[in-house]
Every structure is written in structure tokens, then in C-alpha cells.
Amino acid sequence: MSHKPYKGFEPKWVMELAPEGSYRSIFRWGDPNFFKVPKESLYRMMKEVFEMTDEDFREYSDDIGWDQVELSGYPVRLDREHIDALREIVGEEGVSTADYDRLAVAYGFTAYDVLRLRHKVIDSLPDVVLYPDTTEQVERIVAYADANDIPLYVYGGGSSVTRGVEPVKGGISLDMRKRFNKVISFNEIDQTITVQAGMSGPDLEKTLQSAPELFGAKRPYTCGHFPQSFEYSSVGGWTVTRGSGQNSTYYGCISDIVLSQKYATPIGTIKTSHYPREACGPDLNQIMMGSEGTFGVLTEVTLKVFRWMPENRRRFSYIFKTWDDAMKAAREMMQHECGFSSVFRLSDQEETNMMLRLYNVDDTPLYPLLDKLGYKDMERCLFLGFTDGEKGYSRNVARNIAKIARRYGGFPLTGYVTKSWEKGRFNDPYLRDTLMDFGITTDTLECTVNWSNMEQVHQDVRKICHALPNTVVTTHMSHCYPQGANLYFIFLTRMQDEKEFKAYHSTILDAIQRSGASISHHHGIGKMFAPWLEGYIGEKEYGVFKVLKNYFDPKYNMNPGGTIGLDLKPEEKISDRRYTDYAEQPKKD
Amino acid sequence: MSHKPYKGFEPKWVMELAPEGSYRSIFRWGDPNFFKVPKESLYRMMKEVFEMTDEDFREYSDDIGWDQVELSGYPVRLDREHIDALREIVGEEGVSTADYDRLAVAYGFTAYDVLRLRHKVIDSLPDVVLYPDTTEQVERIVAYADANDIPLYVYGGGSSVTRGVEPVKGGISLDMRKRFNKVISFNEIDQTITVQAGMSGPDLEKTLQSAPELFGAKRPYTCGHFPQSFEYSSVGGWTVTRGSGQNSTYYGCISDIVLSQKYATPIGTIKTSHYPREACGPDLNQIMMGSEGTFGVLTEVTLKVFRWMPENRRRFSYIFKTWDDAMKAAREMMQHECGFSSVFRLSDQEETNMMLRLYNVDDTPLYPLLDKLGYKDMERCLFLGFTDGEKGYSRNVARNIAKIARRYGGFPLTGYVTKSWEKGRFNDPYLRDTLMDFGITTDTLECTVNWSNMEQVHQDVRKICHALPNTVVTTHMSHCYPQGANLYFIFLTRMQDEKEFKAYHSTILDAIQRSGASISHHHGIGKMFAPWLEGYIGEKEYGVFKVLKNYFDPKYNMNPGGTIGLDLKPEEKISDRRYTDYAEQPKKD
Fold first, then answer.
1. Which residue of A84, A409, A527, A565 has the lowest C-beta tally within 10 Å?
2. Distance between CA atoms of A293 and A564, rounded to whole angstroms?
3. For residues A49 and A53, what is the distance between their CA atoms, to the nearest angstrom?
4. How many whole angstroms separate alpha carbon A48 and alpha carbon A52?
5. Cα distances (angstroms) measured from residue A384 to each of A313, A328, A376, B276, B450
């Protein structure tokens, strides 16, 4: 990928395909042939913030991972007989004990993972990687692992940011990407599709948008689920972690989109109901979602699908004078009952400052005007999005958003900014590797907040972040509801040591938890957030998860080693810090 | 209530206030001062269908329940010391062991309950009735019942049609209506209200619509939850049974409307999350909803509320030539992504025949025209509803419904029919008592169905019903979703014996189950549907409910005696009959 040439000094960004078999080919995000570098104004800004000079960008300051993966000291500890038995189940091409294949499924994509891979820190490794092909194979593998007490992990799209996939106890990792990715059935009457859990986001979307050719359908469809990790995410990962896509305000989170699930568990196959609603006891679909592989392996998912109607999309962007104005406008839009926008994203003052550069608004004649109009830098907040749905619906939502934005002093910025954002929406993560080569690490944390506590959480978390050394923290609100929204924090810091970074990450997560927000809106818990979970939910409430675990996986072989905290020792847990009592939140403006 | 005089013979309907302390004052539905009788054309129709003459209506053919409740042979079996201890908790006015008070909370409102009360069949009775006032009192009662192994039941609004409230093992019944019905807090920023679980539907709605006066709110609100049992239902009952209101297609079912819950359980207080979505393990809110009192007693509920904007409501009604046309139109409306109608009700051919009389369309000049226009009696299907929400949203939904109805041959019938339906929507149940006095019993069953299986379920269930003696079965579709809808069966039969009726009811429920529908969309399971539940859900799946029960209530004192099947013996369960595999349903028109 070419980019706009710098006028001044430009660092020697890594713009080469990583060698096959190298560490970089594992830890680098996304398409190996796609590269993204910061534009010059962003580069200048970063130097300023982190007190760096061009000198700091003359040499890579971190390992760029060009070496071949060759592991010594990490022998396969699983007995030969087990590997033979597993080969019996999945066939010759379904098994690997090669170093590269083992390391390739050992980590997810949180910065802690990437830093460890850059520094060749191998904390975890499966003994064997399996590539199952059918549900029956997965069911047999689960039964075998359970019978022989072998830890079992699942690698879906690989984009976990919670150490959810990390095989901390070795054993088996199922790599679902290669073969467990097929359509099982498509039902146009009900508007559903049933797929194997390893199907990737892009494969699913391509399938649905090609429904007329593939299934003789009347029209193309969409799943409506587009997380930022879209390209390297899987249907199974979305489901077991309770993910959300960037368009969730209209299409719903995955917990709304999933109609039915099938799991291979140590006690056998579990199949949930396929009705849109029922009154038949606790909701099993909502019990299995969020289990993150600890109850068993998700094999098949039936998803609701929507009509693909991009022609009805209406893009909008507005700038507000303050975060307070913008927040109030956003709340009014969500409570107005005019329908919901598909993408709905409101940046706070710091993120707006960065976004206007990232999306090239600083190159337009509008940029200098904003200050003059009273929309001041580091106060103003950018709001953007687009609507979906039937034509009249989409138009009505956009009209009401315009009306409410005006009422709260919003200044319309046309669809230009939104289009720029759309172009970057899935490739911003590519920037991360480029920056990490020079010692700047970036990661994200997010949480759900009720409207009545929004200002408090935003203030508290930023305050903690600003007290940390060399930190930029930008925040946006997305995934909105009438009763609250997700707050999403992106932080950049000059830091390379993985242990130091882990402590840093913990400080922010802790601040979120203490501020009265939920620990996670859509990233899940994994092994990284697990120490906080019991304290967050409450001891007796958390006990529910434990009895479910004991029922499905009494021998603790499914994703063991701390996932959602189930097998953590008491001393590994963060002491009880309950979320604010809802009754104590403000009730009136 | 007066009514249009009959031209011919009119039965001596019971139009008098039932005596205080009488059986009738317990089993009769609703407001003691409100009466409803069938209009003459409906009376004629019934005589025809059931092969009855005016002679059959000269005398009441069933006990009309005028006698005083005086029980002998039903002593209080709970030890004096327990009653004293409970009095200590709730105070003098919080306890009763009077016959009438005990019987008043012993049954719900399924026809089996009413027939038993008419015939003075006392199968169940609590030993003591408590009227708690505070959450703390309920928590202490639960702890006491658990410590002393006393069965504990809850009576909310009293309108259970599944024997959910029946204290089959005696012990304590909590009558929540009297005192456990207060607002705890109202949060206008988040648009939520927190109430005690015993609050009734009308009290909640009155509170929300008076929010400006009561809480100094900016505007009035609504909960949007209006089950047909509205007047005699409670927030707690809605929640623990997973109820749905008639406006659920827009506002959602109670499982969408509830934000947070608090329970008093034998292991202590359980509080669920108050965030609109999160990714923190299995969803505890969806685990507790559907527990129907078997995990503990629901004490407090936080509900999402909506803006009260009746001025935006758009009423519509259409008539279709056939059920097939109508069903296809309904599906298209639900999948069109133009927003959702609030009330959305489609009657099949038999119900249409009755509805047109019930709602006086047979008195209009339109009626004879319909046949001429090709909308033939016993083929045509009535579709009605109204839209809610912001003005533009409401209009857009109504416009699209009109467009789609036209495309499928729907003939517009104006808002007249819908208004008639609205007038009767909560008082149709009053007809039941009037008819039962003359030996005609009516009851309802309902289920969820995917669109692809809709025709099959409708056919199968009607076939079974038509094979039963003296039966009218009318069906409507309501509570609709893009992936399916609720099918609601109302059946009328000339039958008085409670045992005979129970067997009859079972036959229909069994037919529903075998047809591939869910057992219940919104009535819940209770003790009446419980024998089918494990077979329906699957043994391993049902095991989840059992481990949850063992966790919350290891001594089985909470709503014991078969509720959601938890303490049924194997021989009390219906042998395994699984729902149709989803994969086997049709996929294309």
C-alpha cells in the first residue's frame, strides 16, 4: 500500500511482507500484504505527545519479529498414543505438532500478546494443534480430552484481546480457521443461516451477500455484525464471548443475533432452542453465550440475517461544542423512539482531536473554520454514523438525528468524515504494528455505562489514565441503548516491556471497575479480566457460573487456566470491588 | 354494565356483584362490578355450534359460586411457633390464617382452577398467608422457610394459567398484592423505574403516566407491557414467567423490558446487572427470568420505560382472502426492516368469523359486502393493530404495513375494528364466567413457531382440536418477530368436569408439542405444563435447570410440587418428545 509522501523526515516503516515462518507473520495484524502508516500530521503529533524526536525513529526500537520460529525447550508433552488417537479422529491433515503451528494459536491480539511474541516470551503452547472438519469430529475430540484429562482450547479468528484463546496448560488447541468453516443450511423463510463455528466474518458476509447465486435466494442478505476485528474474527468467537459489531445499535449485539447454538461438552451435545422468544424456564441460549469455551466447544450457530440494502444508507456527521452537549444529544437520540442508527459513534475531545487528523479533516478548508465558529480544539466532540434498514426507516432515523443534533448545537460536517471513517474502520489496527516497531504501544478497553453514570465514568477513567506516564487516552461512545452505552477507551503509551504493560493495563481496568461501569461490554473476560469478575458480579451471583461449570465440565478440561475465573485460586482474584449501587446513581439532569 | 338488549330470548346472565366472602368472589375474573355478556349474534352462534337451545340457558348448569367459603377439614398444619415467628417478621396485619384468605391465593385462573373452585374441590391450600411490606421482610421469610423446611409460594397478580401459584404442599403463600407494591425509585436520565415485585400492571402504568406530577419528570412514560391479564397481573409475575404484552412487537417481551432484578433466595440475596448489555459470562438476568419462584422470591425489578405518546398511534385493520396470504404478508411486514408495529394481531379463518361478530362488524354495511368482494366467510382472515413510537417512525410503519397488505390482497377495514378490539382487549376474559355458568368452558394455549413451520403447526393443532367433541378453536398470530411468531389458540367446549377438562387441555398441549412449536411463548410452564418440559428441552439441557435449582434452593422449599418440573418424579413426566429438528423445516417458499 502506498501512502501520501511525508514532506519532512519519514521513519523507515516496515512495509515489507513478513517472512514465512517468522514471528512477525504471527503477531502482525491482518492481511500480510496490507500496510498502514500514520500520516505526517499524526506522526508529528505523536512526537510531541511522547516527547520524541526523529532520532527516536531512525532505528526500530523493538524486535520487529523477522526471525524464524524455532522453538527449543518446548517438547510435545502429550503421549504418542493420545496423538495417534486424535489423528484417528481428524485424519492425517487434521493434526500438527510443528513449532510454528503451535505458536500460531498460542496468543490472541492484546498488546500483551504482541509484546510477548516480539520478545519471544513463550508462556503457553499447545502440545498439538487439531484442524477438525465436522461437528462429529469436535464431539469426539471433546469426549477424548475429557476421558483422558487433556486440556482443550479453541482458536477461532484469533483476535481475542483477553487472553481467551491462550492454552496456558498446554494440551490440545483446535484451530477452527482451516476446515471448520462451512455453511450448514440457509433458511430464507425464517431469514437464518446455520454455520460451523469457525467461519470467519468475511466468509459469512460474502456468503450472505451472494445468497441469490449460492442458494437461489430472492435477495442478498447481511449478518449486520461487523466488529473492528471483523477480518480476523469468527462466528464462534463472536458468540462465546458475547461480541458486538460496530453496527450493533441497529442490528443488535451477537447475543441478539444468535438464534440457536450447538455445543460439544464433556457431558454430551447441548442444543439450544431455535425460537425467537419463549417462556420455558431460564434462557439456555443466554446461559451458553459468555461461557468462552469453559463449558465445551461451540460447534454450530444459527444466526438471524437481515436484508442487504446499502442503497438506503444515510451517512451523517456532526461536531458538538462540548462532551456534555454531545452526550445529551446522543441520549436523546437513543430515547427518542424514532428507530436506531446503525453506526453511532461519538468521540470525546481527545479522540476528536486525533480523529480529525486521522480522517484528513485537517486537510480541508473546514478545519480552521471550526475554531472560529466556537467549536474549539480539545473541547469539541465529533459524532458520526450511518443509518440502515428500509428506505423510510433509514430516512426517518437520519432526519431525527439531524433535528436533535441541531437542538444541542451540533454543526453538520457532511458525510465526508463518515466515509473516511468507513475506509479506515477495519484497517486502523494495522497502525498498531507500525508504531510498536518504534516502541509506542496501543491497546483498548471498553465497558458498559448507564447514562446516569456516564460523565462520572468518563472523568474517573481519564483521570487515572492522565496520571499514567506518557499516555494518550481517547474515548468514544458506541453501541448505544436507551438506558446507556458502551464507553471505549483507546490508549497509546511509550512502553515496550510486556510485564510493565500488563501492570499498566490492569491499572486502567481497575479504574473502570471502580468507576461504576461493567468490566466488559463486548470484549469478553478471557483470562486477562478474570481476576476482577467475581468481585464485580458478586460472590453468590458468581457461584452460578461455578455450578454451571461443574455440570458441563466437572474435570475442568475445557479452556482451563483462569478463563472467566472459574479455576482461579482465591489469591489470584482481585478483592471484592462491587459496582456502584444503581440506586445511588443520579436520576435527574 | 348494561348491554344492547336481545331481540329474542336472553339467558339470565349473572349480572350481580358476588357476595363478599363467596367462592364466586374468588374465581370470577376481574373487577367485581364489571360484567360482560355475549351479544345476541354470538349467543346464537354458540347455540348452533354446541347444539344447544334456549332451554339449556334457562337454568345455570354449573355452580355459580354464591356460597360462603367455609372450609372444614383443612386445619392449619403449620406449628404455632412458626406462625408466631413469621408474625414477628411481618407484623400482626401481615399474617392471616382465615379460610377465605387461604383459598383466595390457592389457585390461578386457568379453566381447571375455575372449575375446581366452582365445584369446591380444594386440592391445595397454604397454611398461612403473609402480606410482606418490605424487601427485608421477604428476605427474612425466605431464610426462615428454608431453615425450617416450610414450602413457600408466591401469589402476585393471580392470573397464572399454568398452576404456577398453587401451593400444592401447603406452607406459606406470600400475597404480594396488598403491601408489596411500591415504587422504589424512578430514574428519568436512564428511563427506568424500580418497583417492588407485587406492583400491579395498572398501578405501574398509572405511576408512569403520572411521572410529571409524581416525580417532577419532564413527560409521562409507559412500560409498554399490556398482557390481556393486565388488570390482574403483577410486575413480579410478568418477570418470573417471561411474560409478553399485547404490544410486545414494538416494546418487546418482559425479558427485553427488565433491566435488573433482585431475589431473596435460600442462599441469600441475588442481584443482577443493570447494564443494557455486557460480555461478562452467562447472562444472569436471563437465568433468573423463567425460574417461576423455584430459585427464590423476586423482590425488586428495574424496568426500562418508554415515552407515552398515544398521539402518534396509527390504527389499521385489513382483511385477507386466505390464511396463507395473510401469513405471508405478516412475515414480510416483520422482515421488511421498516420498524415494528406495536399491536400486531392476525386472526385465522375461525377466529375471524367470531371476531367480526364480537367486534360488531356484523352490524355494519361492510359485512355483507365482504363475501361479494371475494373475502369469503371461514376463509378470510382479519389482521389488525396499531403503531407506536415517534411520529415519523409510527407513520412509516403504518405506511409500509398498508403497502405490504395491498400487495398480498388485503382489503382495508379502517380503524373501526381496531378500536372495537381495543375496547374489548382487557375485558374479553369477563365473558368466560358468564358462559361457564351455562356449562361452556373456554381456555387458551399458545406457543412460539418459526415462520417455516407456521402452516404445519396451525394445521396439526386445529386437526387435533377439531377431532375433540364440541370444540370451537380460534387461532391468532401475535407477538411477531422476523424469525417467527406466537400462535395463540382459544378453545371453547361444552364441558364442566374439571378432570375431563384437564385431560382435554393436555391433549391440545400435547398436539402443540408434537407439531414442532415451543411449549410456551409467554404463559410460562408452572405446574401444569411441567411434565412436558424436560422432554421438550432435552435431558442434558434440562439438567442445567436442575443444577441451578440445587444451587439456589438445595432443600426444595421454593414453589415446590412440580413447578417447571424440578421436583417431578420420572413417572410424572411425559416421555421424551423432542421438537422437530430445525434443520428439517422448509427453507424456501
1. A84
2. 10
3. 11
4. 7
5. 13, 15, 18, 22, 37
Q: How far apart are CA A255 and CA B277, in angstroms?
A: 9
Three-class secondary structure of residue A187 per DSSP? strand
- For the complex shown, is ipTM > 0.95? yes
Q: Return the number of CB contacts < 8 Å for A and B.
A: 320
Tens-digit pLDDT string for chain B (589 aa): 457 789 989 999 999 999 999 999 999 998 999 998 988 888 998 899 899 999 999 999 999 999 999 998 999 999 999 999 999 999 999 999 999 999 999 999 999 999 999 999 999 999 999 999 999 999 999 999 999 999 999 999 999 999 999 999 999 999 999 999 999 999 999 999 999 999 999 999 999 999 999 999 999 999 999 999 999 999 999 999 999 999 999 999 999 999 999 999 999 999 999 999 999 999 999 999 999 999 999 999 999 999 999 999 999 999 999 999 999 999 999 999 999 999 999 999 999 998 888 888 888 888 889 999 999 999 999 999 999 999 999 999 999 999 999 999 999 997 888 888 888 877 888 899 999 999 999 999 999 999 999 999 999 999 999 998 888 999 999 999 999 999 999 999 999 999 999 999 999 999 998 898 999 999 999 999 999 999 999 999 999 999 999 999 999 999 999 999 999 999 999 866 655 678 788 888 8
Pairing state between β A95-96 and A152-155: unpaired
- Chain A residues within 8 A of B159 when measuring between CB atoms: none
Distance CA A411, CA A414 (A): 9
Cβ distance A564 to B484 less than 8 Å, yes or no, reads no
Q: In Å, how far are A580, B213, B311, B393, B566 from B400, measured between CA atoms?
A: 44, 37, 19, 11, 46
B186:A587 CB<8 A: yes
Chain A interface, best mutation among B483, B580, B587, by max A CB count within 10 A: B483
Of B390, B479, B583, the CB nearest to A337: B390
CB contact under 8 A, B190 and A583: no
CB contact under 8 A, A189 and B588: yes
Chain B: residue nearest A340 by CA?
Answer: B339
Could you tell me which chain B residue has the CA closest to the CA of A290?
Answer: B281
Cβ atoms of residues B400 and B336 within 8 Å: yes
Cβ-based neighbours of B169, under 8 Å, separated by 6 or more: B151, B560, B561
d(CA A548, CA B421): 46
Asked if B296 contacts B265 with a C-beta cutoff of 8 angstroms, the reply is yes
Q: What does the alpha-carbon distance between residue B322 and residue A240 come to, in Å, rounded to a whole number?
A: 43
Residue B194: name the closest of B249, B289, B247, B271 by CA.
Answer: B271
Cross-chain Cβ contact B484/A587 below 8 Å: no
Residue type, A353: N
Closest residue on chain A to B269 (Cα): A540
Closest CB to A187 among B271, B452, B547: B452
Chain CA centroid to CA A177, Å: 17
Nearest to B280 among A390, A520, A588 (CB): A520
Nearest to B279 among A268, A396, A522 (CB): A522
CA–CA dist A420, A364 (Å, integer): 13
Handedness of CA B544, B548, B550, B553 (dihedral sign): negative
Across the interface, do B518 and A273 touch by the CB < 8 Å criterion? yes
Which candidate, B222, B233, B298, B228, places its Cα nearest to that of B263? B298
CB contact under 8 A, A481 and B519: no
Pairing of strands A152-155, A172-175: parallel
- Residues A105, A167 contacting (CB under 8 angstroms): yes
Element (H, E) at B362: none
Nearest beta carbon to residue A276 from set B400, B484, B583: B484
Shortest distance between the Cα of B161 and any Cα of chain A, in A, equals 13
